Amino acid sequence: MAKTKKIIGSIVSHIFLALLVVIWLVPILWLVVTAFSGYPGINKAHFFPTSWSLDNFKKIFLHPDSVVQYMTWFKNTLVIAIFTCIISTIFVLMVSYAFSCMRFKGRKKIMTFSLILNMFPGVLSMIAVYFVMKSIGLTNSHLGMIIVYSAGSGLGYLIVKGFMDTIPASLREAAKVEGASEFTIFIKVVIPLCKPIIVYQIISSFLIPWGDFVLAKLMLNSGISSDWTVAIGLYNMLNRSLVNNYFSVFCAGGLLVSIPISILFIIMQKYYVEGVTGGSVKG
Amino acid sequence: MKEEKKNPFKAMGRGFANFFKGIGRYFADFGKAVVKGDAGVKCSLLFMGAGYTFKGQWLKGIFVTLIEIAFIIMCIFYAAPNLAKFGTLGTVQREAVFDPLTMQQTVNDYDNSFLILLNSIIALFIIVCFILFYIYNIKACYELQKQKEFGQHIETNKENVKSIVGNKFHLTLLSLPTLGIILMNVIPIFVLIAIAFTNYDQNHMPPNKLLDWVGFSNFKKLFTEGMGNYFGYAFKKILGWTLTWAVLATLTTFIGGILLAMLINKKTTKLPKMWRSLFIVAIAVPQFVTLLLVRNFFGDQGIVNTICSNIGFTDWLKSIGLVSSHLNYIPFLTDPHWAKFMIVIINIWVGIPYQMLIATGVLMNIPTDQLESARIDGASKWKIFWKITMPYVLFIQGPALITDFVKNINNFNVIYLLTQDVYITPDQALANANAKEVDLLVTWLFRLTNEYYNYKMASVIGIIVFIICAVFTIISFSKLIAGDREEEYQ
């Protein structure tokens, strides 16, 4: 009796889970099927397209127009992402080593202060950031975007520092006894041991420019579409006057950018948990 | 010690007391160094490198003196001209005169108020940093003198250079990142505060117009109502919605995440990894793609409306009065009440998988012996959930929950991407303040700057949000630091 009750309970919970999965994946499914539809606009009457084709992808790859410059946007975002990721990773490693492996006066205070500073959402001071960049002539430039994304990255040291804390101090001391400078220890001892967390740091900083919408919209405001990143370009396609002619193209573009981004996100999601709970939980 | 943990504000009070004591000690030490210092220390009051040079560290001495010279040059050519105009923010307005001789427009030597403001702030910042460095330098020279008096080894020039990658390596490492943080995080905050006290808006745009200091009048405008001023009304409404939204968004996703994680982690659930991955796919797609997609999904003439009207759901909602009778669609994102409801629902869709991921991590770390003994004692499932699981989860996730709350106050993406270009406010008073019912303070701020160039009001709103966030951040921070495990391993 108890056993059948258990089985029924298990079946019910599986059906419930499946139902939830359907709810969560319906929009994604809609994205995929619309991307393969045979017309560029939005189909308001049917969930599945009434005709199928690869036209939207062809438009993206082969026939860019003034609205769809997908390949240029992709290239822009990729360049910004690569440089952001290099600078941020180096900055974060530098800050983490200083805080984790070295002992100096005021270390705890500086750490506390930078953690608090990091908790303030960047969205707030963005107008002021915009002014600062404008006065040095770096709005509407990709260099400006790279600076905006990576300059303050040193504040996000918490996860990498937490990882460095787990490296036994005896390793560093042994190197010091043999006459190695802190610089040598940093490059030759600590960094090789930090490989997994460096991968995390590289991926997460690489993802920032792909997912960011607000800063890019504010900084790249000239209206010249060849300057844009993928996020703004795709957003622009859903403009009231354009949505009826470009919705399926938007879906195709969204799908194309989502595939690599999703893969990277799934690789790094196990560290995500650790970051949020401040290291008190191992993901 | 225990009491401190329980009451963060008491601890903060003690922290402040210590802070001021520290400042007192700081200046006392400086005075002592000046009074008791030898000729080298006294000379370095004027030539900062002197103290080092007298003790044989001439390389360091030259370096420090060069910094001093650079600072003086900066003061004369950069700080002084800007700071002189900081009080008025410039007096000469830009004028272009057509010159008939050269057939060209000539512009007079005008004052750019904004650049004066920005440069003055940067200059003040540099001056404060230099003063701190100056005091540090005198103290360091005095230390050096003491070392010599006690007959300790004084570093040679070569050792000084070596320390850049040796025991002073942290300075080398931190210098560049700090510069970036100052440029991106610190200076902007000061600029934001300064603009809130000026009249920077659409009618006063440098370089063509001059800015003026206006004192607290922008703050007054935001907190009062009437006489053609709609900002007070809009601020009250938007602040209310922002806080309601932040509470709703945080709680719904938090609880939903835990429930989903428990459902997936149940022993009877087959293939937990597969279920988890399916939910992760939904959040792995960039947010701007999914949100823009969902916005069209629920559009007035969108696919969901077509389906609802086909199955008669729209008519049913009309009959119970949830949709007004003159509409032939459900105004998911165009009616104030519907839009707020839908935003919360869509945010649940966006947020639960994240929370599920975190909750899974937390739940897997619950000490199993406690669960076992409770089960042996015959506690019911509900009792175990409320008495063991929930307290444990709250203990671990408490600080993160407050951080989430702050993040939701500033959840720009969800609100902006779902409502921009779609939602038009029916409330004329709100529209006069360029606001909408569904706006958060941050989206209001963003649209004020990006669409209406009303920088002064946006800055005031920015300061208010800063203060709100600061209170919650400090509460959450005092708990977060307790989870630091740095000394555990080393």
Written overview of the protein:
The complex is a heterodimer of chains A (283) and B (490). Chain A has helices at 2-35, 55-61, 70-101, 107-119, 126-135, 142-150, 158-165, 169-177, 182-193, 195-211, 214-219, 230-237, 243-276. Chain A is built from 13 helices and no strands. Chain A is globular, with a radius of gyration of 24 Å. By secondary structure, chain A is an all-alpha fold. Helices cover 70% and strands 0% of the residues of chain A. Chain B has a two-stranded antiparallel ribbon. Chain B folds into two domains: 25-215, no CATH class; 223-298 and 333-483, MetI-like (MetI-like fold, Orthogonal Bundle), CATH 1.10.3720.10. Chain B has helices spanning 2-6, 8-36, 39-43, 50-54, 58-86, 113-149, 157-162, 169-195, 217-223, 231-265, 272-284, 287-297, 303-310, 313-319, 336-364, 368-376, 381-409, 412-419, 428-432, 441-450, 455-480, 486-489, and strands at residues 96-99, 104-107. In chain B, helix 15 runs antiparallel to helix 18 (412-419). The chains are: A mainly alpha (283), B mainly alpha (490). Chains A and B meet through helix 1, helix 3, helix 4, helix 5 and helix 6 of A and helix 6, helix 8, helix 10, helix 11 and helix 12 of B.
* Range of strand content of chain B: under 5%
Order of helices and strands of chain B: HHHHHEEHHHHHHHHHHHHHHHHH
CATH class of the largest domain in chain B: Mainly Alpha
Q: Main sheet of chain B, how many strands, which sense, barrel?
A: 2 strands, antiparallel
Write out the CATH superfamily name of chain A: MetI-like
Gap from first CA to last CA of chain A: 38 Å
Oligomer: heterodimer
Mean pLDDT of chain B: 85
- Poorly predicted residue ranges of chain B: 1-5
Residue-averaged pLDDT of chain A: 86
Structural class of chain A: mainly alpha
Largest interface: A-B, 108 and 109 residues
How much strand content do the residues of chain A show?
Answer: under 5%
What proportion of the residues of chain A is helical, as a percent range?
Answer: over 70%
Distance between the termini of chain B: 24 Å
The CATH class name of chain A reads Mainly Alpha
> Which strands sit side by side, in order, in the main sheet of chain B?
1-2
User: Total number of β-strand segments of chain A?
Assistant: 0
Count of alpha and pi helical runs of chain B: 22
Domains counted in the coordinates of chain A: how many?
1
